[in-house]
Design brief:
- The complex is a heterodimer.
- Chain A has one domain: Sandwich (Protocatechuate 3,4-Dioxygenase, subunit A).
- Helix content of chain A is 2%, strand content 31%.
- By secondary structure, chain A is an all-beta fold.
- By secondary structure, chain B is mostly beta strands.
- Chain B is built from 3 helices and 12 strands.
- In chain B, the strands form 3 sheets. In chain B, strands 2, 5, 10, 11 and 12 form a 5-stranded mixed sheet that branches. In chain B, strands 4-3-8-9 form a 4-stranded antiparallel sheet, with no helix packed on it. In chain B, strands 6-7 form a two-stranded antiparallel ribbon.
- In chain B, a hairpin with a 5-residue loop joins strand 6 and strand 7.
- Chain B is globular.
- The relative contact order of chain B is 0.22.
- The chains are: A mainly beta, B mainly beta.
- The interface between A and B is large, with 68 and 75 residues.
- Strand 9 of chain A pairs parallel with strand 1 of chain B.
């Protein structure tokens, strides 16, 4: 038997009361989680540069500090989910993942859902200036001039804080993946 | 490691769908980059931090009084592409109330809120992928996409299968709704058979006598073809 997967539809503008009421899903690493603690701020903007005000949702999936998805650390959850605020931003508290395979660089897998997106967008977040980025097989598939769209950058003056903008469309559009 | 097959052309909506206006500034304009599937795509979240309550799949029991509207049962199976049930899939749903109003601060449709209806539920499918919700039939509502635009009655579904690539967010519609051919969201799917599969079916075997009509909505998640090794290892 071969069935066709059910078609996707937009999450719409009114998902918040069902999907993002649990703010603790923004904390992937509680106190005691192993690894380098990271505050990761993600801002979603549209093709005109306008922020997705409360009507986008970001989901993260990442390995633990040792690069393991099926880990046993009770203080760490590899999954996170937050809605964007009126500035288009959401901030996760996590740890920098380890390398999941030989040659791969630390990265966080990202799903973007929003009003106006008929199906989810997949992207990844890497950490700027990590030497492992040079050999990552997925970054190698991305044209060099677009790789920077996948790099979170340290926020000046704030310890352990990284930020990235997900630009849905237009100049400097974020690289999205077909999985 | 097996890759999940890619969706058939036409079976999923395109990002850019001009009749759905919100796609105009939000659909990516560059081609997506196809990734081979690695552990990052083939693993997925397991739920632990959010225990499911006993009434989370009955949206009519969230307040002491029952909500207004026509009580219905929505049930079905979560399947993979080989027709096997997806055990323990997490199913979340949300919807407008019987008058077509969401319990959301930015929904300004002048229809009454129902103090006895939240409109959100969730459950974990059983070993065979079966799920069942009790709720009320949502109302149609206007939106500002185009002149005199109305969304057909629908229930939003959010599902997690076994992997990052099996994530699915969709909407379920009701049979014989005259708004369906006019809806840019549903019509964004090129293949009419794929559209039709988002329309639930009235089902007498799900219907409970003297109590509520039943609608069947089966959901197919992306699913890899099993190897003999995996089958044997079950």
């Amino acid at each position: 038997m071969s069935l066709t997967p059910t078609a996707s539809q937009t999450v719409g503008p009114f998902f918040n009361f069902a999907l993002t009421t649990n703010a603790s899903l923004g904390i992937l690493a509680r106190e005691g989680a192993k690894g380098e603690r990271v505050f990761l701020s993600i801002r979603v903007v549209d093709g005109a540069g306008a922020p997705a005000q409360g009507d986008a949702m970001i989901e993260l999936w990442q390995a633990d500090a040792e690069g393991c998805y099926a880990h046993a650390d009770p203080n760490f959850s590899g999954f996170g989910r937050l809605e964007t605020d009126l500035n288009g931003t959401c901030t996760f508290e996590t740890i920098k993942p380890g390398c999941v395979a030989n040659g791969s660089a630390p990265h966080i897998n990202v799903i973007v859902l929003a009003r106006g997106l008929l199906k989810q967008l997949y992207t990844r977040i890497y950490f700027a200036d990590d030497p492992a980025n040079a050999n990552d097989p997925v970054l190698a598939l991305v044209p060099e001039d677009r790789r920077s769209t996948l790099l979170a950058k340290p926020v000046q003056g704030r310890d352990n804080t990284w930020s990235i903008e997900i630009r849905l469309q237009g100049e400097a559009e974020t690289v999205f993946f077909d999985l | 490691m097996n890759e999940y097959p890619r969706p058939r052309p036409g079976s999923q909506p395109e990002y850019a769908s001009p009749t759905y206006k919100s796609t105009t500034l939000r659909a990516p304009s560059r081609p997506l980059i196809q990734l081979p599937h690695s552990l990052s795509e083939l693993t997925g979240p397991v739920y632990g931090h959010n225990p499911i309550g006993p009434t989370d799949n009955d949206l009519t029991l969230h307040f002491p009084e029952p909500p207004q509207g026509e009580r219905i049962i929505v049930a079905g199976r979560i399947l993979d592409e080989d027709g096997r049930g997806v055990p323990h899939a997490m199913v979340e749903l949300w919807q407008a109330n019987a008058a077509g109003r969401y319990r959301h601060q930015r929904d300004d449709h002048p229809a009454p809120l129902d103090p006895n209806f939240l409109g959100a539920g969730r459950m974990i499918a059983d070993d065979a992928g079966n799920y069942r919700f009790v709720t009320i039939k949502p109302g149609a509502y206007p939106w500002r996409n185009h002149d005199n635009a109305w969304r057909p009655a629908h229930i939003h579904f959010s599902l997690f299968g076994p992997a990052f690539v099996t994530r699915l967010v969709t909407q379920m519609y009701f049979p014989n709704d005259p708004l369906i051919p006019l809806d840019p969201v549903l019509q964004s799917i090129p293949d009419s058979a794929a559209q039709a599969r988002l329309v639930s079916q009235f089902d007498l075997s799900i219907t409970e006598p003297e109590w509520a009509l039943g609608y069947r909505f089966d959901i197919v998640l992306r699913g890899r073809k099993a190897t003999p090794f995996e089958e044997a290892g079950k």
